[in-house]
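Here is one record:
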Amino acid sequence: MTGAEGSRGTMGFPIIPNNLLMFEKALEASLTQFDTHGTTHLYRVACARMKSVVPIGLETYDIMLKFDLKETQCLKNSGQNAQQCNFKAGFFVETYNCSSRVLMATSTLVTSLHCNSRSNGVRELGDHGSWGDQGS
């Protein structure tokens, strides 16, 4: 590709070096933030996608993610890596549909995390670090 075609991806988003690495870091930070609040078991990503990546400065990006989390068989205090834990089986396994906004620069900061549970309503972790159920 040449000219303007070479600077844009197929969805119109700018092509940024190490997109996959940034996606993985942003997703890991979001999952870590989720797992530190009000759960007894670890959660693992069932599916995920990057909605947008906006360059906001030199080596600084604002990243929007959408992902689904599913409860695993591992207890949070087990010390295990959630990615190596099996998902719980059954119809009533806790599942969350989440979106997060992550600021990535020299460090990774989850600026907002919104998760909607099929059984327990909405959980939000916002700019001020508050976490709680917001209805059902």
The CA atoms of residues 116 and 122 lie 4 Å apart. The first strand starts at residue 41 and ends at 57.
